Amino acid sequence: MARLTMIEALRDAMDVMLERDEKVVIFGEDVGYFGGVFRCTAGLQKKYGEERVFDTPINESAIVGLGIGMAAQGMKPCVEIQFADYVYPAYDQITQEAARIRHRSNEQFSCPIVIRMPTGGGIYGGQTHSQSPEALFTHVAGLKVVQPCTPHDAKGLLITAMEDPDPVIFLEPKRLYNGPFNGDHAAPAQSWKSHPLGEVPEGHYAIPLGKARVHREGSAVTILTYGTMVFVAEAAVDSLGLDAEIVDLRSLLPLDLEAIEASVRKTGRCVVIHEATRTSGLAGEIIACVQEACFYHLEAPIMRVTGWDAPYPHAQEWDYFPGQERIRRALKTVMEA
Amino acid sequence: MSSKTRLSFAHPPARPGEQPDFSSLEIPKAGALAVPPLDVAATDCVEHANSLIRVLNDAGEPVGPWADYLGSPDADTLRTGLADMMTSRIIDTRMLNAQRQGKMSFYIQQIGEEAIGCAFRRALKPGDMNFATYRQQSLLIAGDYPLEKLLGQIYSNAYDPLLGRQLPTLHSAREHGFFTISGNLGTQYVHAVGWAMANALTGKDNLAVGWIGDGSTASNDFHTGLLSASSYWPPVILNVVNNQWAISTYTGVARGHGRTYAARALGYGLPALRVDGNDYLAVMAVTKWATERVRGGHGPVLIEWYTYRVGAHSSSDDPSAYRPKDEAKAWPLGDPIERLKQHLILRGDWSEERHVQAEARILAEIVDVQKRVEAAGTLLDPQPIPGASIFKGVYADTPEHIRRQRQEMGV
């Protein structure tokens, strides 16, 4: 088993699927000849030809809308939006079309499309290279929403997403593309190549959608999170010496309700963490689910640590990004309650 | 106010209370335009995109190069076309009445636009796919779609193939080459291009056909569809049905200072033709040309069908609030049914008497279907589809949270 970066793991997943299924096509802005602005599709056009991997005009509605037409006809498009921050021109196609075609046609047509997009901050990306728009998709019936945080999961989940019969929004935390990140921006960058979670099996393997992964077992408090915040939470927990359980949700829609409930019933305390802004963010939904199912097991109010309700800033990157210190404060509050 | 800059606001030629006025329209004589080669380039069809292809003259005779290109269709073909259009119109009339009687919630008529969908549909082959709007029910009728299903969808009862999930007239009929209609305008124009790309990539020798109205050409996805078709050159026909009105908004608002919608395609490098949409033979001839072009691998084409929306926008609309009451009667391209009927009579293949008989036969058939479908439930006599069906088909497999909601509903 080789160690790969998340970029290499994602590319490997697409390579495996292009090889296995001739109906798979890959397209988006700069994904063809150039291999993607993040190199996620490097070499694929050369290997499989322009009819399988190609460049598109700068038009997100075209990228998704063409994919929907192709998917409805029987192909398996895996398309890329260059940054999640630029998905909005395709929002009509995603929410009103891709998400609804199966239901509104009573299954005459379906839409097996994967829409990949780099997401998240912590990279001085400013307003339009840092956003976490997952709640705009988890609110839409008919979509599935996935976000991996390790190369292993990135490959396995992308393969599953590409084999799924329904539309999947596949969010890739670009802060984790090359290595894990614990929120300490002063520390030297670590590569996945020297991290055990960079171990990626060769060939085809699948990780089911809708299933969370326990990143760290514990019994004192449950942390429900995903993406970059898994590693920030882990560092915060370690620095406190706290026996916390960190659940990496991986699948944001549908949520793994059973895993969430099992962990919170065990620990009796819960903190939800995400980069996205707070109000009407996914944490609100998760907290509501926990409150409904685990109320009599709770020993403290559920807290959330999120991005602030402001557009993602540039200069104030580390005031905005929910770092270890903010997570420690929330954990102490929940543990002392 | 000394500035020389002024905004321009388009206005229709006449408003309620005024005389209909189409004197400013340029309607060229039938037979004036040549038939371009199937592989014509956008630069060589400037005239075709700005003028109007017409075959039937005022006397009902087919004239000119497009008439020659079409040849003389046999009488049965034209009589079938006439029956298709009459069926469409009778259904429209009956369904609007049923809506007024409170038997169902909503209806959209296509009166005056029947020739376009009816003649176009008869030129398609099995496996071709239409990406229609809500005003191309004629594609289903001329495609011999079972009328029980068509009406069942409108009544949202047990005959409805879509289990009551969609607003009336938002059909879906995959086996009849009819993609699921969305309420969101313009989106399907891009799907047509994507579907056509998939056909080309998988070696399927079938067409995809996009449909859009004049008002919706203003949507982002009109641009997206044209650009994508131009970028990848797939086997797609992109239709614009210009019926002069987008609900209450005069077509000039969407058209702006452009002359025609067809001409917009030329800027994308796509060939385009502009056609008299009320001339059944012109629709036949141009459809024959377009399908031969696209099936022959010469790439996409855009067609602007020039017509007039005779009815209200929908059963929820009252056009007398924004246009003259008799405007449809003044429309210079007339009525597609009357014009084909006149042509058939001129050929000696039809008569007033046969027309009256045909009308009675079609009406009886539709009344019969309507009775059967209404017996399965109307808004006045509801026989609802079980609520549990809401949860089916959101996904291929029902996830846990939806399973819990179904339990909460108690079903």
Give a written overview of the molecule.
- The complex is a heterodimer of chains A (337) and B (411).
- Chain A is an alpha/beta fold and 337 residues long.
- Chain A folds into two domains: 2-176, Thiamin diphosphate (ThDP)-binding fold, Pyr/PP domains (Rossmann fold); 210-336, 3-Layer(aba) Sandwich (Rossmann fold), CATH 3.40.50.
- Chain A is 35% helix and 18% strand.
- Chain A is built from twelve helices and 14 strands.
- Chain A has helices at 6-20, 44-48, 60-73, 91-98, 101-104, 134-138, 151-163, 229-240, 257-267, 282-294, 317-320, 324-336; strands at residues 2-3, 24-28, 53-55, 76-80, 114-119, 144-146, 168-173, 199-200, 213-216, 221-225, 244-248, 251-253, 270-277, 303-307.
- In chain A, the strands form three sheets. A seven-stranded mixed β-sheet of chain A has the order 3-2-4-5-7-6-12, sandwiched between helices. In chain A, strands 9-11-10-13-14 form a five-stranded mixed β-sheet, with helices on both faces. A two-stranded antiparallel ribbon of chain A has the order 1-8.
- In chain A, helix 1 packs parallel to helix 7, helix 8 (229-240) packs across helix 12 and helix 9 (257-267) packs across helix 10.
- The longest helix of chain A is centred in the first third of the chain and has 15 residues, at 6-20.
- The radius of gyration of chain A is 19 Å and the shape is globular.
- The mean pLDDT of chain A is 98.
- A five-stranded parallel β-sheet of chain B has the order 1-2-3-7-6, sandwiched between helices. In chain B, strands 4-5 form a two-stranded antiparallel sheet.
- Chain B has helices spanning 46-50, 65-70, 75-100, 114-122, 137-142, 147-155, 187-201, 220-232, 251-255, 262-267, 280-295, 327-330, 336-347, 352-374, 400-409; strands at residues 129-131, 208-213, 236-242, 245-246, 249-250, 272-276, 301-306.
- Chain B has 411 residues and is α/β, with parallel strands linked by helices.
- Chain B has two domains: 42-316 and 324-380, Thiamin diphosphate (ThDP)-binding fold, Pyr/PP domains (Rossmann fold, 3-Layer(aba) Sandwich); 383-411, no CATH class.
- Chains A and B meet through helix 3, helix 4 and helix 5 of A and helix 7, helix 8 and helix 15 of B.
